[in-house]
Write a structure and sequence with these properties.
- With 312 residues, the chain is mainly alpha-helical.
- The protein has two domains: 92 residues, DNA polymerase, domain 1, CATH 1.10.150; 179 residues, hpI Integrase, Chain A, CATH 1.10.443.
- The protein contains 13 helices and three strands.
- It is globular and about 65 Å long.
Length: 312
């Protein structure tokens, strides 16, 4: 599947600053193979900075100084959360490195060289209990075409710990039934192989036979999960599905698209799986990202201790 190129407004493309932003976006898309969502974030951040420079009447990126960055940072702190501010500063740092390394700037130093990103508190991901997962999976009407599809989507997400984009991009050819694994293409089109439970494979077989065959069209390509028009599901459609059945199950927790993925990792850890294996299955490039689930596990153990210890 081809990634959509990040486009700037055509009427503004003659601006020197915007031409450089466009060059950078093409670079990270073609050379770095970053995901479409990541490129969209870079686009938003750089255009936001470009708007700021316009209001400050700064014509060139060569004229950006540490004082300019300080003023921009002060404005960001008023408008955005610290996590968004940190992301924007990171985007700018990468952008100015690109200008310096490609000789597209007369600056001798990255103006963000000595700026630290805002310190972020580490937020533990929300997870569902096994009982809550079971209750949600019981909600879809598997006798209807879309109900069966929804059931299988959630079964697959929980069985394999998939990101929402990985579910929408999943194809029939990625399901290797005999080996009980699936091929997943994650962030940056990185491929990994993830085990899938036999029960989830059986639900996929039932869905293919009784539901997908009824909604597929000649333009459906090989995508496993389709909408009622026979087209690939959107990310928002997956979110709506999870939200719908969680409400039907009367789960009061705050629900988000990755909650099945977080629950998958947490339940594996609670069951005794080692962190390296979980890292491989989740497709994390750095194990420090996976280590957040050890904090979730400790929280769970503390709850158990408090509940069952005589002096808890």
């Amino acid at each position: 599947m081809k990634k959509k190129k990040s486009k700037l407004p055509a009427e503004e493309s003659s601006e020197p600053r915007l031409r450089l932003i466009r060059s950078f976006l093409l670079f990270i898309e073609l050379e770095k193979s970053l995901s479409e969502n990541t490129i969209k974030s870079y686009t938003f951040d750089l255009l936001r900075f470009n708007d700021f420079l316009r209001t400050e009447d700064i014509k060139l990126f060569d004229d950006v100084t540490e004082i300019v960055i300080e003023k921009f940072l002060a404005q960001l702190k008023k408008e955005f959360r610290s996590s968004t501010t940190a992301r924007m500063l990171s985007s700018l740092r990468q952008f100015f490195n690109f200008l310096l390394n490609s000789n597209k700037s007369k600056l001798s130093l990255n103006p963000l060289e000595y700026f630290d990103s805002p310190k972020l508190g580490r937020k533990l991901p929300d997870v569902l209990t096994v009982q809550e997962i079971d209750k949600i999976l019981e909600q879809p009407d598997v006798n209807s075409v879309l109900g069966l599809r929804d059931k299988v989507i959630m079964e697959t997400m929980y069985a394999c710990g998939l990101r929402v984009s990985e579910v929408t991009d999943l194809k029939n050819s990625n399901i290797m039934d005999s080996d009980e694994v699936i091929r997943v293409f994650g962030k940056g089109s990185k491929e990994r192989v993830v085990p899938i439970a036999g029960s989830a494979l059986e639900w996929i077989r039932i869905y293919r036979q009784n539901a997908r065959s009824k909604i597929m069209k000649n333009y459906s390509e090989d995508y496993l999960f389709l909408n009622w028009r026979g087209r690939k599901l959107s990310r928002m459609a997956i979110w709506d599905i999870i939200n719908k059945y969680t409400k039907m199950a009367k789960i009061q927790k705050k629900i988000h698209p990755h909650i099945f993925r977080h629950s998958f990792a947490t339940h594996l850890l609670e069951g005794g799986a080692d962190l390296r294996s979980i890292q491989e299955m989740l497709g994390h490039s750095d194990i420090s990202t996976t280590q957040i689930y050890t904090h979730v596990d400790i929280t769970y153990l503390k709850e158990v201790h408090k509940q069952y210890h005589p002096r808890g």
